[in-house]
Design goal:
Layout: E1 2-7, H1 16-30, E2 34-40, E3 55-58, E4 60-63, E5 66-72, H2 77-85, E6 89-93, H3 98-109, E7 113-116, H4 121-127, H5 134-145, E8 150-153, H6 156-164, E9 170-172, H7 189-195, E10 202-206, H8 219-222, E11 226-230, H9 236-242, E12 247-250, H10 254-262, E13 266-268, H11 278-285, E14 290-293, H12 298-301, E15 308-311, H13 316-327, H14 330-344, H15 349-365
Parallel strand pairs: 1-2, 1-6, 2-3, 6-7, 7-8, 8-9, 10-11, 10-13, 11-12, 13-14, 14-15
Antiparallel strand pairs: 4-5
Helix pairs in contact: 2-3, 4-5, 11-14
Amino acid sequence: MRVAIITESFAPDVNGVANSVLRIAEHLVARGHSPLVIAPEPAAKKYPSREKYPVMRLPSLPMPGYRNVRLALPSKQIKAALQEYRPDVVHLASPFVLGAWGGKAAADLGIPIVAVYQTDVPGYAAAYGLRPATRAAWRWVATVHKRASFTLAPSSASLRQLKEHGVQDIRRWGRGVDTTLFHPRHRSAKLRSELAPNGEVIVGYVGRLAYEKSVHLLSEVAKTNRVVIVGDGPTRRKVAKALPGATFLGSRSGADLATVYASLDIFVHTGPHETFCQTIQEASASGLPVIAPASGGPLDLVRPGVTGLLVPPDDPDAIADAVALLALDPELRQRYGRAARRMVADRTWEAVVDELLDHYRAAAASRPEPVATQVELVA
């Protein structure tokens, strides 16, 4: 199949959307399909590009307050690119800005659209103190997704959320995880001795440092535990102030990241606005017990009392109590970690992309006629 993936973010960006699109495109190529990725130009002037498929970059501007996130500018190039590439289906990855333009162009051309919901933009608006904008954000999400043949939601919580806000024709589709890269065997005694020289239990967080991730909620944990933070972002200074004794490793990737995961004892995710939460899958594949808020994607990814613990959102004391329970019981940590590894064993990217291909084929089988969309975007 010829697939045009229009994404709000792509490598070298480090986030869930960029990473999942990269893996999807790689596995499409491996299966003999032909992806085209359309994405915003990243902030870096020079960046490694090893893709075995075409990538079209569009001019972009930094998002106010979060300069690492780039917003693509409106462009007629999208429609021209789709006309030239003639895809069987258009995949909108977390559509909001660029995805809205891509969806309109595809609808005008009569190309089937599969929209993948990945980012809780309305929830992020609330986290950034823009709560009055959440209703408008949901209206926009519903408008963009109405152009799709159907929407793919990554979790049961996001599926319910989309239905509540008027999005129709929703199917469930999760994410894959590299269970070879993320594996308990990568645990490093050397790294552990550097991070916890006295043999302390190591509690880790991996992800962006941004307001919606609420990493400052580890403040109570950091008072009595060795805390390791992997990632970077606009709240780096705020988090460092809240966690004065924590170790910050910055952004890590590949084998380096896998070694850090496997060398932790407990993984904690703090953000309450996750539509999925890929880092929980990576931690699970690494054989770690997981503590996460009982909201959004983690509800599907953590089995309380089996693979980890769910706690009330935005509750630093509940997080600290859960960490204390696991920190005092190494046998319980190991049991949860083994169960977590088993739970994600069959969630490979190969299997997940095969499911995605079935969704592509279903959309392509009911190819629509070109139509003028009701909502016009102002150039």
